[in-house]
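Are you able to produce any protein sequence you like plus the matching backbone structure tokens because I've never seen that pairing?
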Amino acid sequence: MRVVIVGAGPCGLYVAHLLFSLSIPSLHIMLLESEDRVGGRTQMGNYKGHVVVAGAGVIRKTDKRLRKLCRQMHIPTHSFQTHVKYPRPYQSKQYFLSLLETLKKNSSEFNLHETFSQNFQQIMGKEKYQDFIEMAGYTDFEDANVWDSLRDYGWNDNTSGQTMYGVNWNDLTDRMAHHLQMKYPLPFELLLNTKVDKVNYQKGKFTVFSSQHDKKIENIDVLFWTTPRPGWKPIQRFLPSSLLKEVQCQPFLRAYATPKHPQQAEITYPPHHVTHTRIDCCFQKVIPMSSSSSSKKDDTIYMISYSDNQHAVESNRKFLTKNKQIQNDWKDPQLYFWECGTHYYSPSLLTTSQERDTWLNKAVHPSLSHPLFLASEGISTQQGWTEGALESAERAVRQFLLFIT
């Protein structure tokens, strides 16, 4: 059986691992990646000699698949507790969670054709909503289905006292790729710099085309597609319009800098690796990333923007680098921008976890007449998290097994 997986992020790599674990006779897997590296939106960068996160952030205590994968790949993680400092004196974890609880109690008033933001403001008002998004530190739920957001967003992850784990994502995904190449040297191929531009299906077989190398790969029995939403264009004709409408994505931005006035920065943004200081502006939050106890003040670096949605668009990125007040406080900004950083579900009539589960089973195998399977953090109950990518990979492989048996 010839299988092609498009996309070598954690999802695509995990799909390959799962398929090989099934011991399917004569299985051959080809993994295609448009970039010159594996990892997708999990990526580490370098800022002033410090290894920093460029894409996906942390691992949560509840991310059982991801934590198990790190153990299997012998990748170390380090745990820490989160601490949040809110922008206004009256804001608190208790207030934040109470707003969510009040919203749930008024669920009978939800308009399922409207977004989380619209429902919240209609029920509780604009002022409380402004408080809510300041305390949340994100806005990636604003345009989403209200029930999915309430049930699956993981609001506690944005509060103090949560156990998180840091990991070097490059080490993890490189190790996954290396493991596949060493354990399955003949039935596994990894092709980098191979962007798929076109997909055909004829007589029960797929053919994929890549203009990067004027390459054509034929006689594909099964195709797994593990890219973010914008990468679905070559397979769009195989997907139902309802799926294309419901799964959406939004931009994401990280920016690192060093303070021009370190002592003042220590007062305003307490120098602990895990302190998220929520602020009422385009930054959304400021996070000290290294200890200020070093004799070299340049060793104190900050993530000065951890922003999503409209806060990550081009005008805001220019603001971060051009604004005089910012230039007075910070120096040497380094930005990491993702046009499609995280996904969300647009408003729909789905209200229960059972309904979403049924929808997901159909979404990962969108056309029963074609052996095409979708897997992505965007098609999971944990959108925005790497754990969601692994969850989706497992679901897609389960549907694949149902298809071939």
Summary: Residues 386-404 form the longest helix (19 residues). The chain has two domains: 2-40+65-77+170-239+366-404, 83-161+249-344. The first strand starts at residue 2 and ends at 6. The CA atoms of residues 47 and 391 lie 32 Å apart.
